[in-house]
Amino acid sequence: MSEFHHVAAIIIVAAGAFFMLIGSIGLLRLPDFYSRTHATSKSDTLGIILVLGGLAFYEGFNINSAKLLIAIIFVGLANPVGVHALARAAFKQGLKPWFKKDNSKNGESNKDNK
Amino acid sequence: MDRVFIYIATILTIIISIPFIRVLKGPTLFDRLLGVGAIGSKTIVIICLIGFVIGRIDMFIDIALTYAILNFIGAIAMAKYFEFERKEDE
Predict the structure, then answer these.
(1) Among residues A16, A8, A11, A14, which one has the least CA distance to residue A60?
(2) Distance from CA of B68 to the nearest CA of A (A)
(3) What angle do CA A96, A100, A104 make, to 5 degrees?
(4) Which residue of B has its CA nearest to A63?
(5) Which terminal residue of chain A has fewer beta carbons within 10 Å of its beta carbon, N or C?
(6) Would you kindly state where each structural domain of chain A is located, as residue ranges?
(7) What is the distance of C-alpha B42 from the center of its chain?
(8) Between A6, A37, A74, which is nearest B34 by CB?
(9) ipTM
(10) pLDDT tens digit string along A34-89?
(11) Is-above-0.80 flag for pTM?
(12) What's chain B's Rg over C-alpha atoms?
């Protein structure tokens, strides 16, 4: 029973690290600031929740897992809010979103987005 | 069991170098701020894993919570500052 407990904790923590890797690759590879926020906000938040949740599952039921749950709740609220505030500031400052180059003949509003 | 946590912390330390490339060559300022936020969110996880390896998770989880609060306040302050910078120019 204890062996299953350890293996399940390792699988959850490794899944969190995998989602953090995917978010970092999206942050490096995507073409625009807004798509980069889309990549890094959600997958990083899920990665933190999975890793800290796996550590709390490994720890058992005591005061340390309660503090880990407090950290999960705070990060799950604060990380998307921070990235959304950055995206809102960029949109208010006039940063244009990215469009595909093939749509440039359909609308005249896409010409100044280069 | 602690060996697995050391491996995962090492992998996350290597993963941190990927947002650092975006911090170095980001086209706009907001890309750099986004990379700084991503590095901070990975650092929280690494601090918790190091606490499990050392065996003092009761101390390291407080450090991780403090780091999360500082990261959030820094992101909010930078967003508010650069939001209002443009209006002074116009």
Answers:
(1) A8
(2) 7
(3) 90
(4) B58
(5) N
(6) 2-99
(7) 5
(8) A37
(9) 0.85
(10) 999 988 889 999 999 999 999 999 988 889 899 999 999 999 999 999 999 998 88
(11) yes
(12) 16
Angle (CA) A81-A82-A84 rounded to 5° is: 65
At A45 the pLDDT is 92
Domain count for chain B: 1
How far is residue A1's CA from residue A26's CA, in Å, rounded to a whole number?
Answer: 38
Spatial neighbors of A59 by CB under 8 A, at least 6 apart, are A65, A68, B57
Window 12-71 of B: residues touching A by CB (8 A cutoff) are 12, 15, 18-19, 21-22, 28, 30-31, 33-35, 37-38, 41-42, 44-45, 48-49, 52, 57-58, 61-62, 64-65, 68-69, 71
The distance of B67 to chain A (nearest Cα, Å) reads: 10
Amino acid identity, position A114: K
**Integer CA distances (angstroms), B77 to A41, A74, A85, B44, B49, in order:** 18, 18, 9, 20, 28
Domain ranges, residue B69:
2-89
What string of H, E and C letters represents the secondary structure of chain A?
CHHHHHHHHHHHHHHHHHHHHHHHHHHHHCCCHHHHHHHHHHHHHHHHHHHHHHHHHHHCCCHHHHHHHHHHHHHHHHHHHHHHHHHHHHHHCCCCCCCCHHHHHCCHHHCCCC
